[in-house]
Amino acid sequence: MRTALFLVLFVCVCHPTASGGEETGTLHGLVVSADEHQPVPGAAVLLQGTLRGTLTSASGEFSIPGIPPGRYVVVISMIGYRPYRSDSIEIPAGGDLRLPVSLEASAVETAPVVISASRREQFAEEAPVSISVIDRQALEERQSVTVDDALQYIPGVNITESQVNIRGSTGYSHGAGSRVLVLVDGLPVLGGDNGEIEWETIPVANIDHVEVVKGAGSALYGSSALGGVINIITRQPTGSLTTIRTFGGGYVLPSYSSWHWTDDPRTSGGVMVDRQDRFGSVTAEVGASRNVDDSYKVNDYWKRWNLWGHLGVEISPFESIGLDASFLDQQRGNFLYWKSLDDALQPTDDQIGEHVNSDRWRLSLNYTRMLTHDCFLTARGGWFHSRWADNIPTMFDSGGSRSTSDAATAEVQVNAQFTPGNILTGGISGSSTTVDADTIFGHHSSTGFALFLQDEYALLRDVHLTAGVRWDAEKIAAVDLFSRVNPKFGLVCTPDDATTLRLSVASGFRIPSIAEIFTTTEAGGLLILPDSALQPERSWSYEVGGSRHWSGGVTADLSLFRTDLWDLIEPSIGTDGYIRFQNITRAQVTGVEASLTLDPWAGILPVTVSYTYVDPEDKTANDVLRYRPRNVFYASVHANLRPVFIGVDYRYLSKVERIDEELISLGIVKDGDARVPISVFDLNAGIDWMMGGTAMSGGIHIRNLLRYYYTDFIGDLGPPQSIVASLQARIP
Amino acid sequence: MSGHPVRFVLLLILLCLALAACENGLAPETAAGPPPKPYGIRGVIRFLHWPPADSVLDLRLAVLEHYPVASIVTEVIQGRAKYTDQIRYGIDSEQYSLSLAPLPTGSFPFVGVAQQYGSNIQQDWRVVGIYFAGNDSSKPGSVVVPVDSMVPNINITVDFAHPPILP
Q: Which of A66, A197, A266, A575 could make an S-S bridge to A294, C-beta 3.0–4.6 Å?
């Protein structure tokens, strides 16, 4: 594997760059909307089956230089429009070709361009795994304050206490590690100490779209991609634009008087300002937001500052570099469990006055260079700093706990196409983490290294094979070296333009977080102690599926899947009577997922429904896995009668069959067994208008329209109805 | 294939809306109507020779589904036991009533009083009183709890100076 990787790097680096080789051609174009003939900025332009692509500028124009002469199919994709696919066009040697394109509006993107499935841009349906995408429009229309808020409408995905459960494989990992890898522009954003997803760190205003890859992804991304990968792609500035967005509203009093605990209104609100500019080959963006939420529960408030910025330089048509930064400052109350079902919005008395303050930084640098006509280099590095402190007393820290962690990642990746239909992707990755926490986690560091290689090969014209492998090694101080090889295999068959069949087999693993290995604390009178014998969790995912488009905007997708999991880490009481995180559970999750999208009137009334059934089997306990609903059903209908839109989203999750019963038995969570299926409607409505040269949008967002009461987690009532109004101005 | 599937799905969503509108989900217990009739045990615990207060960190009556067991705490954690609230220190006697829901009705082979004497909440427990059936003190007395019935006279004497010897 190493030989092949170095061969790729050697060939690419030694090959002359695009500016100096054989005579090539250039593809120019202008992309406009079919209805209003206005430029479409930010549209993705790809030469199908190659690595070549670009984005349209603010004026809707694009240019792809350095194309070897030959015949190509051009594909253009943009949120809110139907994808465009050209006939086979001829790029002449040394000549230019101009391609004018009109995109038809559509609220449903049937073939989004994704980057996460193969570490390169491709259409989602060309990937051998299931991928779902949330676009920027959906984030805005649903008034999503954090990314996890929007993920709850992705087929097969549900959220438990901010942890993502993909097709039942990931469940809930007790706040000390994530079985889903979360990336921002390809770099991890899991906390260095607890391995948790820090959703608040990621400013929603800065997001272009979110990709959710279902199934194990460690063959490309390494640890934590046990059940899937979520890659958050930030927006790249395309021109001069100031965006101001504000929202405000509050929670409606619960229907039952015994749940009323205050006469004061419980409000939520925020304001966001973002400015992006383009100065020739330089792009820049800076933004800030302030969000405050009183919460509907006692001592569950949060206050948050987010700052972010971007600086990008297009050094040449073949080379660019970008620097991104974001900052979070947050104060929030502590609400672990309710007092009882009768006092469901109040925590136990000991939690009153407890709070957690945190600040987090994220810096990333991304460099891309076209080394040759068919070879691209990407180098990226990131630093994620997290610091939190609470005032929750334990027998070890009477004044509370604190932790500071720094996680740095750097990687170099090469995508190369040596022959038509054969794309190699390879790279190296390194990481370093330090944790500085007095007692709860101690002082530790870790260092990791990885090599990965993937080949996408066209076996036949309509059959594409993907094979890849990644080797990871990580050394956590005072613990054995963790080393693992994760392979993957995929097959995509497109018997006709409308049908795609896919098959994939991949392995995943998750190295225990420093918190799982070293936690020393007390919770509910129980002592939790370190266990340096912890081993990584492992998984194998299998999927066979297919999708088909019909005329009239009908798209259906069906997947059969299975995930085998070994050594799942859970807190458990040892023979000495103390709790430790231990490798306990062998599990198997099998299921089926079906989704249907109907968009017969080009975006006027798109309808989507999806259903996921999983059989989450805990083979160790001979029981069902905890925190996994068997049935997940989502439906949404959005009426886009521009300038007015109305959308209704519905989600149903069957009652979770098994939870942490120990917390009930020990009397830590009174009435903890009280739970029901989740059946929630959300309503979003809005209107767009122009005021001078400013594009305005106003909206109203009603969450939990029918005031249905349910638990998100054991002893934690989900949000009752809330009503929020939003107003946005886009000033060129 | 254009119009009909959309109408079908819209109808499906409307059906969901109608069904969901009929259901409010969770409600406080006080709003959920009369609770089911309890089943369990009741009786009197008498105490002799209290030790110093700092060695009685906790004291509870516990009922086990199975006996013998390796650890009462483990049985509690596994949901195979029920226990009372903490018993006050220094009292002469205590009348108790313990609902056994959600444990299944039937035979319970152990009813006893356990004392936490040290700071290790998992390990530092000992049994200081056991319910014996009749005059047979050779093994814990089994209690049969029928449906909808609170079985009376499950009385226990706790003598801290002479804790029972567990068979």
A: A266
User: Is B86 an interface residue toward A (CB < 8 Å)?
Assistant: no
Domain membership of residue B25 (yes or no) is: no
**Domain of B124, in residue numbers:** 40-159
Q: What is the CATH number of the domain that holds B129?
A: 2.60.40
Is the residue at B134 inside a domain?
A: yes
Contacts of A551 in chain B (CB under 8 A): 1-2
Q: Are the CB atoms for A441 and A518 separated by under 8 Å?
A: yes
Give the distance from residue A662's alpha carbon to the nearest chain B alpha carbon, in angstroms: 5
Q: Compute φ and ψ for A22, nearest 5 degrees.
A: -65, 165
Sheet holding B81-83, edge to edge: B81-83, B58-64, B110-116, B125-130
User: Which pair of tokens denotes residue A290?
Assistant: 């302030």
Question: Using CA atoms, how far apart are residues A638 and A648, in angstroms rounded to an integer?
Answer: 6
Mutation target among B98, B100, B122, B126 for the A interface, most CBs of A within 10 A: B122
Distance of CA A309 to the CA centre of its chain: 20
**DSSP symbol at B5:** H
Q: What is the pTM of this model?
A: 0.83
Q: Do B10 and A637 touch (CB under 8 A)?
A: yes
Residue A129's beta-bridge partner residues? none
Strand pairing category for A241-251 and A187-188: unpaired
Query: If you count residue pairs, one on A and one on B, with CB atoms under 8 Å apart, how many are there?
Result: 118
B12 Cβ under 8 Å from any chain A Cβ: yes
Query: A112 near A135, Cβ under 8 Å?
Result: yes
Instruction: Determine contact, residues A158/A629, Cβ cutoff 8 Å.
Output: yes
Structural domain contains residue B100: yes
A151 membership: H or E segment, kind and range: helix A147-151
Strand B40-48, strand B150-151: pairing: parallel
Identify the residue among B77, B84, B103, B124 best suited for mutation to test binding to A, counting A beta carbons within 10 A and taking the highest. Answer: B77
CB atoms within 10 A of CB A264: 7
B3 belongs to a structural domain: no
Burial A3-15 (b: 16+ CB within 10 A, else e): eebeebbebbeee
Residue A673 is inside which H or E element, if any?
none
Question: How many CB atoms within 10 Å of residue A259?
Answer: 24
Count the Cβ atoms, other than its own, within 10 Å of residue A624. 18
Query: Which 3-state string (H, E, C) describes A27-47?
Result: EEEEEEECCCCCECCCCEEEE
From B6, B29, B123, residue closest to A598, measured CB to CB:
B6
Question: How many domains are there within chain B?
Answer: 1
Query: What span, in angstroms and rounded, lies between the C-alpha atoms of A563 and A544?
Result: 12
Neighbour-count burial of B108, counting CB atoms closer than 10 A to its CB (0-12 exposed, 13-18 middle, 19+ buried): buried
Q: Please answer yes or no on whether A552 and B1 come within 8 Å at the CB atom.
A: yes
The residue count of chain B comes to 167
A167-185 core/surface letters (b: 16 or more CB in 10 A; e: else): bbbbbbbbbbbbbbbbbbb
**B142 interface with A at CB cutoff 8 Å:** no
SS3 A350: helix
Taking alpha carbons only, the member of A239, A203, A328 closest to residue A57 is A239
Spell out which residues of chain B touch residue A719, defining contact as CB-CB under 8 Å.
none
Mean pLDDT by 10 residues, chain A (732 residues): 41 42 80 84 80 80 84 80 80 84 70 82 86 88 87 90 86 80 92 86 90 93 92 88 95 92 92 93 94 96 96 88 96 93 92 94 93 88 95 84 95 89 93 91 93 92 92 89 95 90 95 90 77 91 93 89 93 76 91 91 84 94 92 90 90 92 82 92 94 93 94 92 95 92
User: How many helices (DSSP H) and strands (DSSP E) are in chain B?
Assistant: 2, 10
